Structure formats: structure tokens, C-alpha cells
Amino acid sequence: MSVISIIDKLEQLVEIHQQLIQFSLEKTTIVKNGEVDKLQSHLVKERKLVQQLEKAEAAREKEVEKWFIDNGLSLDDTTITTMLQHLQDEGEQQALEASAVRLAEALINLKQQEQLNVALIQQSMQFVQLSIDLLSPSLANINYSNKTDMDKSSANRSLFDSKA
């Protein structure tokens, strides 16, 4: 059996990962601009793409298992490296290796971009937390009251009267 179908599946995965990288770049811009509504709709579209990726990966796994069974190999080590070792055709070896390298590069790029997005979101959350902390100052910092007479229930009072 030829590995052409497996190479095709790998190329589909590369294409989907490239789309995810593009989505991730767009997400970076959205987060930088603070467009929360746009981020929500963007995440819905991204989730659909991830589902498409999961289906393509499952199809690739089936093709690889079929190739291993057809070639009388154990299913314990179904890796590209094992396939490359057992392929006779040098052209198929090179094509399979090139597809695997492109997929690995796409995965690395996507991971780096997503790490940047996570860092940006964490930074945004820290800014929000700082803003909240600034809006609800501690009464312990006020110098015009006697600490012994201070009511314990008012210790966490904020600037806004939530009982009104």
C-alpha cells in the first residue's frame, strides 16, 4: 500500500494548522484592541476549526493503522519514524518526511502564537484586577479614623454602595 493517502492527510492537517495560526494572529490583534465581543465570535469560529482538525487527525490515524496492518507491522509504534524505516520507495520517504516536517513547523508556530495570546490575556486580567483593587481601597489606609473604633463590618467597604 502506498503512503500517498497518509501524506494527503498530513497535508490536510498542515492546512488546518495554517488556518489556526491565522486565527491566532487575528486573536492577538483582537486581544490587543480589547474587543471582547469580537473575541467571543472569533473563539466560536476557532472552535469549529479545531473540531475539523480533530476529524482530520482521526482520519489520519485510521490511514496509518491501515498502512501498518497492510504491511504486517505492529500497532505498538505507529510513528512517522517507523514508517520511514519500512518504506522502500525513496520518493515516498521524502514526501512523507517533508509533510511531517511541515506539520511539525506549523505546530511549533501555532504553539508560540498561542503562548503569546495567553500572556496577553493574563496581562489584561492583571490590569483588570489592578483596576478593581484601585476602585475598592482598603479603609486601613485612611488616616482620619481611630482604628479601635472602626466597625469590623465596614472593613471591606468599597466606593460603591451595593445595598442601595
TrEMBL record:
GO BP term, pick one: bacterial-type flagellum assembly
Record has Membrane as a keyword: no
Record's keyword terms, sorted: Bacterial flagellum biogenesis, Coiled coil
Pfam families registered for this protein in UniProt: FlgN
Coiled-coil spans in chain: 36-66, 93-123
Name of the protein this chain belongs to: Flagellar protein FlgN
Organism: Ornithinibacillus bavariensis
